[in-house]
């Protein structure tokens, strides 16, 4: 038997092996895509109810006497006026048969707890409304919202239903008269956190995440790039530098909660920085992302062909000039990709922030990096833990916003890489 | 290059802005995750209806909150800490040692802990003794002073009236305050029905505790995490299991799960308030007296929290599942807050 025969005989087997390997590869990718799809579809379907909001239109008589206000009242007295009175009067007018105290309480809970504040803000903006009768759309309570969206089944027997027959009859009569409508839930994007599902919004957490990431970026990017350049281009080869290199690699593997403990001990207890502030969160997260960026930047700098440096040096550039004029721009795509991956990691991180008090209920939207705030993944956690059923949808919606952020950041990374990329 | 310089400059600016953070104009609250849902409701209303900033409320757990609260009397320490139990003597001592002199205690109401299962599943009528037998690591035998590893696997082995299904209880892990309260009230409640165990309480307190407070680890009790919503979802999928969680979750999910009777009392608003339902605990918050005059809005926030509108029998906190105080207790709390009567060691 000559060699050709041997090869020919084994050929079939080798082709088969290749086929099997290809198939396994495709199967793995298909499985990964399937799981991703299941996850996305599940989250999206659960999140859908959070993006619409049920509203109840009520003819409100802004009776000047009842409110104790007139068109010239000061903002302060308007703040203190009880706008619940006029909303309750409107509801009672609609359902005059309700007289018992307990039933009245039920009736008043048709509109959101935020309705009075919504009305108050409208009146403060336009005091001429006082004394007029106007039909105003109020946010419905989360129970009403759940009935309209079908997440509370109307056909269940009364004892098993959260919304009782009496309340259901009111909702149905409002539905019949066309006073109930659903619209896009803008509040979700313009409000801070709230304990009422219908009023809770993501804006506070989005801004908190944004401030935190800005601080992280501002601190970790310059430091990490400078460290990478020094270690790669200028550092002498000795034991001390080796030791530092090993430690940077080790640091990248340290569990993130450790950085939280460090942040608590050093920044809050020692430097007495404010608790729950994005500033401290950003500093802690930048400690966490530093090694990631350093490692990515170093390999990007290492990948720049030596001919580039040598040509620069050969033409009389100083070492510094060769690095900053030639090596750094060539390594920039790699550095930026590494930075954004580090940032994306920081965006999804919660463990270190637990320690520095960012797991908090914060209604006011943060205005700067020192205002107390929370971040997106923590908002997801807080909502997932709330007893009200309406928060189930909010939780999924917050996850979607977080995913959107991540996708956007990765898109920027790809764009920057494409833009600065050079072919040798 | 220019970009890099700008970024560095920005970092400097951010660091500089930190200096002005010393003055705090919002109330800072820490503490129990059980009180958190009530505290946040008051805070939100307070923020919306007054011109003060909305208080910041952190959920750190009762013990963690006490530590932060008692660390110092300075303005950078929290003003209020929530607690799902009374402050311990050791904690009050720590407070005093660190210069926190005036600590005002405010009892806000009660919280019930329920054992619930899927709504169409079996009805459970339990006694605290049944609960102890079902969940204890070791149970006493007929012979006095003898303990054996928990042999029960089915509910009807414990009590012939209970359904013939496997014992499977989903509950919180040991880090949770709900678990502490459940162990103390339900388990210990059943445990001390054995006279000889009750007697050990006096002779050997640590043995008594280890008998009454140890939960079995052979799989019948499943640690299902601190998230009560998750427990409710798991009960949907497993109609034979019971779950342990706070009353407010039962109240909100009354169409999905039903509470078991304990010692003949249904886990209902009225029975918890009257104390007939045995597994309920008091909820508190503690205020730093020195901060009342320093932080804007403190006085108004306390007034809002202790108003009839919030804490009263038909207040908005009861809508969130808080069991209100009786008239007498409420009046005492109200005067304590108005006069700022602080705790004595």
Task: Describe, in plain words, how this protein is organized in 3D.
The complex is a heterodimer of chains A (424) and B (345). With 424 residues, chain A is mostly helical. Chain A has two domains: 137 residues, no CATH class; 218 residues, MetI-like fold. Chain A is built from 18 helices and four strands. A three-stranded antiparallel β-sheet of chain A has the order 2-1-3. In chain A, α1 crosses α18. Chain A starts with a helix and ends with a helix. The model of chain A has no long low-confidence stretch (mean pLDDT 89). By secondary structure, chain B is α/β, with parallel strands linked by helices. Chain B has two domains: 146 residues, 3-Layer(aba) Sandwich (D-Maltodextrin-Binding Protein, domain 2), CATH 3.40.190.10; 169 residues, D-Maltodextrin-Binding Protein, domain 2 (3-Layer(aba) Sandwich). Chain B is built from 17 helices and 13 strands. In chain B, the strands form three sheets. In chain B, strands 1, 2, 3, 4, 8, 9, 10, 11 and 13 form a nine-stranded mixed β-sheet that branches. Chain B is globular. The N and C termini of chain B lie far apart (63 Å). At the A-B interface, α10 and β4 of A face α1, α2, β2 and α11 of B. β4 of chain A pairs antiparallel with β2 of chain B.
Taken in chain order, the helices and strands of chain A follow as HEHHHHHEHHEHHHHHHHHEHH
Which outline of chain B best applies?
globular
Stretches of chain B where pLDDT is under 50 for at least 5 consecutive residues are 16-21
As a whole number of angstroms, the C-alpha radius of gyration of chain A is 30 Å
Separate helix tally of chain A: 18
Mean pLDDT, all residues of chain A: 89
User: What's the CATH architecture name of the largest domain in chain B?
Assistant: 3-Layer(aba) Sandwich
Q: Please give the CATH class of the largest domain in chain B.
A: Alpha Beta
- The CATH class designation of the largest domain in chain A is Mainly Alpha
């Amino acid at each position: 038997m000559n060699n050709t025969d041997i090869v020919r005989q084994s050929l079939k087997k080798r082709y088969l092996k290749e086929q099997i390997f290809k198939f396994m590869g495709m199967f793995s990718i298909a499985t990964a895509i399937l799981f991703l799809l299941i996850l996305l579809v599940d989250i999206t379907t659960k999140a859908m109810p959070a993006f619409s909001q049920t509203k109840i239109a009520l003819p409100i008589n802004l009776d000047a006497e009842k409110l104790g206000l007139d068109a010239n009242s000061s903002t302060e007295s308007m703040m203190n006026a009880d706008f619940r009175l006029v909303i309750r009067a409107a509801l009672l007018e609609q359902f005059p048969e309700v007289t018992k105290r307990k039933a009245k309480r039920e009736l008043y809970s048709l509109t959101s707890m935020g309705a009075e504040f919504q009305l108050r803000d409208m009146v403060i903006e336009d005091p001429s409304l006082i004394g007029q009768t106007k039909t105003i759309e109020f946010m419905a309570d989360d129970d009403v919202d759940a009935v309209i969206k079908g997440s509370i089944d109307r056909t269940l027997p009364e004892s098993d239903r959260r919304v009782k027959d009496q309340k259901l009859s009111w909702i149905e009569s409002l539905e019949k008269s066309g006073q109930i409508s659903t619209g896009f839930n803008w509040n979700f994007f313009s409000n801070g956190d709230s304990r009422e599902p219908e009023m809770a919004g993501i804006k506070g957490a989005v801004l908190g995440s944004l401030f935190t990431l800005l601080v992280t970026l501002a601190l970790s990017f310059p430091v990490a790039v400078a460290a990478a350049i020094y270690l790669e281009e200028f550092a002498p080869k000795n034991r001390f530098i080796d030791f530092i290199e090993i430690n940077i690699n080790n640091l990248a593997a340290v569990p993130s909660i450790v950085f939280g403990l460090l942040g608590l001990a050093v920044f809050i207890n020692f430097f007495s920085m404010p608790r729950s502030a994005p500033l401290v969160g950003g500093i802690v997260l930048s400690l966490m992302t530093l090694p990631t960026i350093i490692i990515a930047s170093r390999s990007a700098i290492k990948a720049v062909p030596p001919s580039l440096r040598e040509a620069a040096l050969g033409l009389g550039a100083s070492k510094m000039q060769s690095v900053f004029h030639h090596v750094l721009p060539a390594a920039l795509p790699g550095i930026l990709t590494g930075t954004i991956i580090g940032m994306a990691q920081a965006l999804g991180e919660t463990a270190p922030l637990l320690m520095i008090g960012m797991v908090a209920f914060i209604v006011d939207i943060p205005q700067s990096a020192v205002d107390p705030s929370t971040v997106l993944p923590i908002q997801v956690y807080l909502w997932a833990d709330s007893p009200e059923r309406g928060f189930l949808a909010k939780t999924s919606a917050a996850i979607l916003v977080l995913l959107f952020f991540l996708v956007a950041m990765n898109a920027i990374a790809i764009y920057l890489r494409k833009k600065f990329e050079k072919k040798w | 290059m220019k970009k890099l310089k700008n970024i560095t400059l920005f970092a400097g600016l951010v660091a500089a802005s930190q200096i002005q953070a010393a003055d705090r104009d919002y109330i800072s609250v820490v503490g129990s995750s059980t009180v958190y849902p009530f505290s946040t409701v008051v805070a939100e209303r307070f923020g919306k209806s007054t011109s003060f900033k909305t208080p910041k409320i952190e959920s750190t757990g009762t013990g963690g909150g006490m530590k932060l609260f008692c660390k110092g009397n300075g303005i950078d320490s929290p003003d209020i800490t929530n607690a799902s139990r009374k402050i311990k003597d050791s904690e009050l001592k720590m407070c005093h040692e660190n210069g926190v002199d005036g600590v005002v205690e405010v009892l806000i109401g009660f919280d019930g802990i329920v054992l619930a299962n899927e709504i169409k599943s079996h009805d459970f009528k339990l006694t605290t003794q049944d609960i102890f037998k079902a969940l204890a690591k070791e149970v006493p035998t007929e012979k006095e002073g003898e303990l054996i590893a928990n042999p029960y696997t089915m509910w009807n082995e414990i009590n012939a009236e209970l359904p013939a299904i496997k014992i499977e209880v989903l509950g919180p892990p040991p880090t949770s305050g709900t678990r502490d309260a459940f162990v103390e009230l339900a388990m210990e409640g059943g445990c001390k029905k054995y006279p000889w165990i009750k007697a050990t309480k006096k002779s050997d307190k640590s043995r008594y505790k280890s008998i009454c407070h140890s939960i079995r680890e052979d799989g019948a009790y499943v640690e299902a995490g601190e998230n009560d919503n998750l427990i409710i979802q798991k009960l949907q999928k497993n109609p034979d299991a019971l779950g342990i969680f706070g009353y407010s979750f039962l109240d909100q999910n009354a169409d999905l799960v039903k509470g078991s009777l304990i010692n003949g009392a249904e886990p209902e608003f009225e029975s918890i308030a009257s104390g007939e339902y045995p597994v309920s605990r008091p909820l508190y918050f503690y205020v730093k007296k020195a901060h009342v005059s320093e932080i804007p809005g403190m006085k108004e926030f306390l007034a809002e929290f202790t108003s009839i509108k919030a804490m009263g029998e038909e207040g908005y906190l009861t809508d969130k599942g808080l069991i209100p105080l009786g008239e007498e207790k409420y009046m005492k709390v109200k005067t304590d807050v108005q006069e700022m009567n602080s705790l004595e060691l």
